Amino acid sequence: MDFDYVQEKMRTNQRIRDVTSKIAHFHGRVDKVQIFQTKPPRGYNQMEDPNPKIPEFSDQSVTLFEIFKTYGHEDKDEAPNFTLYYDFKPFNSTEPVLLALMIKGPNFKKTI
Known about the structure:
This protein is an alpha+beta fold. The protein has helices at 16-27, 64-68, 96-101; strands spanning 30-36, 85-90. A two-stranded antiparallel ribbon has the order 1-2.
């Protein structure tokens, strides 16, 4: 499993919930977004690990200033760049309307 990142300009007073919102906007509906400051090693699965080794930002009210301990810059082109890595589970819906759309046709192996 690889962890993803998206380059996005954000203010240091924005919160983790804003980052999560941008991730959902980029990928669509997602569940259980996990955000890390350091890149987890390849193959690491934090969601299945009972004793996580890499701290994640699960508190949605934490600001980017609290994570990176620095303020931004007046000119956003000169602002320093920082990276947050993330992982998520795809949205798994059990809504009847969506399930009805997933019915397989009689002559198809795929959904209609």
